[in-house]
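Exercise 7. Predict the structure of MutS-related protein, family 1 from hydrothermal vent metagenome.
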Amino acid sequence: MHNPIKFYTTQKQDFEKRVKELKHKLAISSSIRFLVFLIAVFGIYFFFDTTRIVIFIIISWIILFLFLILRHSKLQYKLDFNKKLLQINSTEIAVLKGDYTLLKEGKEFIDTSHFYSYDIDLFGKGSFFQYCNRTVTNEGRKEFAAYISKNDISSVEEKQYGIKELSENPKWRQQFSALGSMVKVEYSTRNLISWIHNYKIVFPKLLAVLPSVFSLISLVLIVLVSLQFISKQVLLVWFFVGLGVSGVFIKKVNTLYKYANKAKDTFKQYYKLLNKIENATFTSKVLLEKQQQIKTETEKASKIVAKFSKILDALDQRNNLIVGVLGNGFLLWDLQQAYKIEQWIINYKDKIENWFEVIAFFDAQNSLANFAFNHPDYVFPEIETSKNLIEAKK
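Solution. The predicted structure, encoded as tokens:
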């Protein structure tokens, strides 16, 4: 029989060490970025009169700086991820010692008309929900509340086997929870699904090729200017043409962005959870059935959702001055991303709800599995179907 406290303590010590190491790496990464910036500034200053060298320095600096930013972001993500895992294990230690006051009480699920949940204080301060709930998504929390409120014994043995299987894989459960809690989602998936299902096409098919052709011409013009084959005025005129084309669709893009920006955090969270579910190995029928629901004929659901998340992030870069001005002037940036978003919605709007339901299911099941793991001496009850449960004789 395993020892939950010992497991959580070992995990906590391990993640404390990892957090310390990652903080050190991040400090070095920040110093390197600053050093590269200084070198670029001095290089431009010393070769200011030589256009070709200055352009080479700027392009080299941008490429290197973007690489360093990407590397720094990955380190920051690892740090945040390990902090979440550290927090999860610290919480479990506290709960097993009797302190679970910081966990959500589930007051919103209190129903005085329910036939048993109110009488046994299933929800609220000091409730079973507060003690057991470890969900990290809004829909998962609702799913868990609904699950423990049902008086349903159908396929109970299969359900118990699924919970038992998850309980025996605490590291997978913790990683799932850490991934899910990395992003705070404010926009409900119900509203998100409604937006996707009811979306109407507004961008012309011309945008399938126009941004790519325009970007290619921009690249050619930039090269020609750097080689001094054409004047800078030609490039400047082309830049304003790009801004003009982008301006034609500005209202439509702004409307799309209004909703896409709300969806961004949800998809950033959910594709990682889908990937975690897809790559897990399950044996119980109930878990395998749910895992099968997110499999498609061509591509993994996690990859499909990840692509959409990246497109949404790319559109969000319009708030960046460089991307918003130069990106739209030379690359028709907003139009590229807007068209991609539309095409994604057309292709997958009928599947997204099913994928979200699977995530909510596993999120809810993790809470019950965690309860089982924390109490290894508890047993899974057997349902007795015979009419006479207690026989008494006078």
